[in-house]
Every structure is written in structure tokens, then in C-alpha cells.
Amino acid sequence: MTRPETAKPGDGHRLPPYRPWQLISRSLFHLRLTGGDGAVQTWSVDVRHGGDPDGEVRARLYRDGAHQATMKLPATFPVPGGRIEVVGSTYGLKRCHYVRDDGSARQLTPDPSSGEGRRARLDRTRPALSRSLSIASVSILVVAAVLGVPQIIEQITLIPPIAEHIGTFSTPFSLPAWANISLVLAALAASTERALRLRYNWILDGGLFDGGD
User: For the packed helices 127-157 and 177-196, what is the interaxial angle rounded to 10 degrees?
Assistant: First the structure.
């Protein structure tokens, strides 16, 4: 994993409100802690997955709605009693946890208006449907890996320098274009659903090819 950059101090601007059209493009999590003066503080982590103007995806830390720090992902922010760790994936976040000084950890609470918050509410209010969606997501990604990876390997081995050194590979699965497109779209939806629950697997969710852990 790339070593995190140093956090840049915040400028105190207010945490922007969460908008309905940001369900997939923005993650917002909160953590309530007791500060050194005994007052309860609300720490918030805001991540825009489309990135900043320079293309980098950064996490922004707020305390009681005021901007405290910004750091490129993966990010680590010191807070009372420990630190907040934020790690991104291709489809969202795979980690947004409060790690106490004793090493114990717990996930921050997603904002109720966010995609993660709505998905968590579905899990609480309709657990059977939530489990069905979870199983469907994993099933889709397994099928996508079984059918898609051999086709990718075949295309790679057709590159002349690779073919000359290791030969070519013929996939046992040859799908029409419409089926491959449908498979890709289904896999994108499945990985997005898993990202809303901060679930991540390096093979199923893209890490095999994007360098993820």
C-alpha cells in the first residue's frame, strides 16, 4: 500500500449538506467522541469519489461541522483516543474505522442521507431483503470472475510479445458482446452495492487487476 501523505490543516469551512444526487459519488461518516474537556464532539469524514480537480480522491475531516484536515486516500487522522483510518476502493470505500489507542476498531456511522446510510437502514428494517441482495452481489461477482477472467487472459496472451514468450490461451467461455456488456454492468452494480456496506475482496471487487489489497 502507498504510504499516506501528511494531512493538510483545514480552513474551518462548514461541512456541505448531503444532496440526494450524491448517493454513489459521495461518502459521509460520523463519529461521536468525548474531547479532553469532557464535551462530546462529532467527527465527520467526507469523501468525494470523483476526486478533486487534480484527479486525486481525498478525505476531509470535520469536527462539529468545521473543516479540520484533508488527506489523500488512504488517510489516517488523529482524533481523541485514537485515529480514523479511511481507505478507498474502485467503487467507494472499503474502510472508514475508528482505531482506538488499544488497537480495537469500529466502523464510523454512515450519514442517514448517504448511500451507505440508506443501505444500512435497509439492513435494519428489511434484513431478509438485505441478505438476498448481499448473496446476489457475491453470486454475480463470482459468475463475472469465472466467465470474464479467462476472456481477459485470452486477450492479454494475444499481444505479440506475450504470445511469443508464453504462447496463447483460448478461453473455454466465449460470450457475445451483449452478454459481456450485461455482465460488466451487473458486476459494477454488485460491487457498488458491496461498497455501500464497506465490503471488499481483492478478487471479487477489482483488486486483482487494480492493485488493491
Answer: 130
The pLDDT profile of the chain, 213 residues, written as one tens digit per residue, is 445 568 899 999 999 999 999 999 999 999 999 877 788 999 999 999 999 989 899 999 999 999 999 999 999 999 999 999 999 988 899 999 999 999 999 999 999 999 999 999 999 999 999 999 999 999 999 988 888 777 677 667 767 777 667 766 666 667 788 887 888 899 899 999 999 999 988 878 764 444 444
Instruction: Read off the pTM.
Output: 0.83
Contact 133, 193 (CB under 8 A): yes
Judge whether 90 and 98 are in contact, CB under 8 Å.
Answer: no
Cell numbers that stand for 117 in this block? 446510510
User: What angle is formed at CA 212 by the lines to CA 104 and CA 81, rounded to 5 degrees?
Assistant: 20
